[in-house]
Amino acid sequence: MERVDTYRHKGLRKRLMDELRELGIRDERVLDACFNVPRHFFLSSAFLEFAYDNKAFQIGAGQTISQPFTVAKQTELLEIKKGDKILEIGTGSGYQTCVLCEMGAKVWSIERQKLLADNSKVLIRSLGYRPNLYYGDGYKGKPAFAPFDGIIVTCGAPSIPEALLSQLKIGGKLIIPVGEGKTQVMLEVTRNSATDFSKREHGNFAFVPMLNDRAR
Ligand code: SAH
Question: In whole angstroms, how far apart are CA 87 and each of 16, 125, 202?
Fold first, then answer.
């Protein structure tokens, strides 16, 4: 479907960035990156008018595009520098992936739902971004391309996957929502040395669950 980005959409985006600033997002580079990605391209046409509300929406296969505040918060916590290698688990609509690309990161992203992996690839490429996209199980990470400066998990994990910790650079950070119920705690896990990790909590969020293995 033909999608256009109009002045009206840009105006709505600017208003959403003001809202995210009021909600506590401080890093202007993150707000610029979110402003530069037309979120309405990532929602099915039935939800277009809600694209710039601070809400999550269905994207098919029982999954959701994360709330704009959540995307901005996780991106801010990663503290991305240009050229950083970032691994994302849960490509979903591809929106967060594009925000990471806008931050100047080199991105690897994994999605376990075939339909979403296929659809997001077409959309991301059409917008001119060049992340490395995979249909697979994010629990395993991407050992062939490790270590990463940052890893972001965009689905609710029952616990912290060991494989992801082992693929972090020393000084790198894993941003992951952890919890099995309706809400998860956003954890920032920093790798201080080969064996030492420290954790900080950043409030409660609601994510779709991180599930095992690929789905068709
Ligand atoms: N970042 C996405 C959020 C999508 S919701 C966006 O901006 O749209 C989380 C996604 O994680 C879903 O698409 C779900 O299918 C995916 N997911 C769940 N478990 C996974 C796993 N083990 N590996 C890879 N992706 C997974």
Answer: 26, 18, 20
Exposure class string for 27-66: b at 16+ Cβ within 10 A, else e: beebbebbbebbbbbbbeeebeeebbeeebbebebebbbb
Fold of the domain built from segment(s) 56-205: Rossmann fold (3.40.50)
For 34, residues 6+ apart whose C-beta sits below 8 A from its C-beta are: 13, 16, 17, 20, 68, 71, 72, 75, 99, 102
Residue range 18-76, pLDDT digits in tens: 999 999 999 999 999 999 999 999 998 888 889 999 999 999 999 999 999 999 999 99
The set of protein residues with a Cβ atom below 6 angstroms from ligand 1 is: 59, 63-66, 89-90, 92-93, 95-96, 110-113, 116, 137-139, 154-155, 208, 210-211
All structural domains of the chain with their residue ranges: 56-205
Section 193-213 average pLDDT:
96
- pLDDT at site 215: 85
Q: Are 116 and 91 in contact (CB under 8 A)?
A: yes
- Given a cut of 60, whether residue 135 has pLDDT beyond it is yes
Q: Kindly report the protein residue whose alpha carbon is nearest to atom 10 of ligand 1.
A: 90
